[in-house]
């Protein structure tokens, strides 16, 4: 589980490692104590007309120190702190130049706003008390909202007296994130470590996240302080992670390790492996420590290995079942030919050999799918369709018609294989039964196969006998065929090729909605088989991902 570290602050010099300086000492150091150092000398700072100086004038009169709102302050403000002039009701009257460096908010946006609106809701009461006229303490540690939406831990020291120039109190605000978490000698390891270190409080909210969150997840360090990390977990993993997360919070001995998807700053999902451990009850840091690492590459390897194993299992099943039948035919045909001295059984064996050769070819094609594109390139739909037609259907009683061309980016060799299988499926299954039975080669019975670009990609359709409605849901299933000599892997290969490009293939029916063509016309699916490949255009595809430009 990740959290968001707040920004690293500059440690106070002279303090013991890991110990926050004494508030009284810090108040004496950070806030002006002598009358000459307070902005109450309006007689010396007033303009010629007697009006008090503006905040801009105060900066210029500070000798270039920038963060001091009054003349006479000689100590420069360190980059981990800034000054404010705040009215008793919380209105910010002046903001020092270091404000953007610490909380990411521009000075102009802070002036005129209510300081308490930027304080964490749980910390507003002590901050309001410190600003009041009857404060019990002028030093308060609290969380303040950064421009990114997360919270940073700060310590605010409120000057006892009002500053007449501003009508409010001078407040010195200093970052104390590191002081509240880890000693200086340990913070170096966190800053340079590649793993994410997250600390959450008893309410399950982030109080610290190490700097590596920027490299691993892309978030600004500290941007999610004060938020629950569960909101970034993938919805499918959230219930499981939530149960283990709160179990770790309530059971000190629990140390669960789990893997889950976590949303990165760019919106993508990153696989994290997190191990949680409860911190000691008296720990000033928080309740739970979480160590997380990015395991996305490992999960991808596991996915590829699972896919490969599934393919091998399917391959083994095919080899043990589908190849055994034609081999039995060959063996029986040879024995019969020997006994009878006839050649007809050998012809049956030859057909079985052809079936085995086709099975081996298609099985090898299936085994190679899903491993990514071999040679991605740009090519024309018309050219690859005509090349596939020459291999798969030329010489049959069928005609190829390419109506509209499209520019494609993908693996041309695999796309040719897919088109070959679609054409072979059309000529083997789409010929009218009457023409096959009579052997009539007249033009009237010729099959026409159409290839054309569509608004979504391209389609391959024929005017043959079509596909039985009872078989429509099974045409892409591995091993499904309606022919005695079919392999059942032709359309399975088509689906594998298309999906390996990140596209999808659909079987359209005459009852489906018309298909949009690039010229604006609408094509109704024919009575025969109609397969449409849908893919993004170049503008809608990720860089270097396959596309079809119709």
UniProtKB/TrEMBL annotation:
Residue ranges with Basic and acidic residues bias: 35-48
Domain annotation Histidine kinase: ranges: 318-539
EC number: 2.7.13.3
GO molecular function per UniProt: phosphorelay sensor kinase activity
Residues of the PAC domain: 256-307
Entry keyword set: Kinase, Phosphoprotein, Transferase, Two-component regulatory system
Record-linked PROSITE patterns: HIS_KIN (PS50109), PAC (PS50113), PAS (PS50112)
Ranges of biased composition (kind: Polar residues): 1-11
UniProt domain PAS: residue ranges: 83-138, 182-252
Top EC class, one word: transferase
Domain of life of the source: Archaea
Coiled coil (residue ranges): none
Region annotation Disordered: where it falls in the sequence: 1-74
Annotated catalysed reactions: ATP + protein L-histidine = ADP + protein N-phospho-L-histidine
NCBIfam families registered for this protein in UniProt: sensory_box
Name recorded for this polypeptide: histidine kinase
């Amino acid at each position: 589980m990740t959290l968001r570290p707040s920004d690293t602050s500059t440690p106070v010099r002279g303090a013991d490692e890991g110990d926050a300086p004494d508030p009284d000492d810090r108040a004496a150091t950070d806030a002006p104590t002598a009358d000459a150092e307070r902005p109450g000398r309006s007689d010396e700072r007033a303009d010629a007309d007697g009006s008090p100086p503006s905040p801009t004038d105060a900066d210029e009169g500070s000798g270039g120190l920038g963060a001091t709102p009054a003349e006479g302050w000689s100590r420069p403000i360190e980059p981990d702190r800034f000054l404010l002039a705040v009215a008793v009701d919380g209105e910010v009257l002046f903001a020092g130049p270091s404000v953007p460096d610490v909380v990411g908010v521009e000075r102009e946006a802070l002036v005129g706003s209510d300081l308490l609106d930027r304080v964490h809701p749980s910390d507003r009461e002590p901050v309001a008390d410190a600003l009041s006229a009857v404060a019990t303490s002028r030093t308060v540690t609290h969380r303040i909202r950064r421009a990114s939406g997360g919270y940073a831990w700060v310590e605010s020291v409120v000057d006892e007296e009002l500053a007449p120039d501003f009508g409010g109190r001078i407040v010195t605000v200093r970052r104390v994130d590191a002081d509240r978490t880890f000693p200086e000698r340990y913070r170096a390891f966190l800053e340079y470590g590649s793993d994410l270190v997250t600390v959450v409080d008893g309410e399950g909210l982030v109080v610290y996240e190490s700097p590596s969150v920027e490299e691993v997840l892309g978030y600004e360090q500290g941007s999610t302080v004060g938020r629950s990390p569960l909101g970034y977990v993938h919805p499918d993993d959230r219930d499981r992670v939530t149960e283990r997360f709160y179990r770790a919070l309530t059971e000190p001995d629990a140390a669960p390790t789990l893997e889950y998807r976590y949303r990165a700053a760019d919106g993508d999902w990153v696989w994290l492996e997190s191990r949680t451990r409860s911190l000691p009850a008296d720990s000033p840091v928080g309740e739970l420590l979480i160590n997380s690492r990015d395991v996305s590459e490992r999960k991808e390897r596991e996915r590829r290995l699972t896919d490969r194993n599934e393919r091998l299992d399917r391959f083994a099943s095919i080899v043990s079942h589908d190849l055994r039948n034609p081999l039995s035919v060959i063996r029986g045909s040879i024995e019969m030919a020997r006994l009878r001295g006839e050649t007809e059984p050998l012809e049956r064996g030859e057909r079985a050999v052809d079936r085995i050769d086709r099975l081996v070819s298609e099985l090898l094609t299936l085994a190679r799918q899903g491993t990514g594109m071999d040679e991605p390139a740009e090519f024309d739909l018309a050219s690859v369709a005509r090349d596939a037609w020459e291999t798969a259907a030329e010489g049959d009683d069928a005609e190829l018609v390419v109506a509209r061309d499209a520019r494609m980016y993908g693996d041309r060799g695999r796309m040719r294989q897919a088109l070959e299988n679609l054409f072979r499926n059309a000529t083997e299954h789409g010929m009218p039964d009457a023409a096959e039975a009579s052997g009539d080669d007249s033009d009237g019975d010729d099959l026409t196969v159409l290839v054309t670009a569509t608004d979504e990609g391209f389609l391959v359709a024929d005017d043959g006998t079509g596909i039985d409605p009872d078989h429509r849901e099974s045409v892409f299933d591995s091993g499904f065929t309606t022919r005695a000599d079919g392999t059942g892997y032709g359309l399975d290969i088509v689906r594998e090729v298309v999906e390996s490009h990140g596209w999808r293939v659909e079987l359209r029916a005459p009852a489906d909605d018309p298909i949009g063509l690039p010229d604006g016309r609408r094509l109704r699916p024919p009575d025969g088989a109609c397969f449409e490949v849908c893919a993004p255009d170049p503008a809608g595809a990720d860089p270097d991902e396959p596309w079809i430009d119709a």
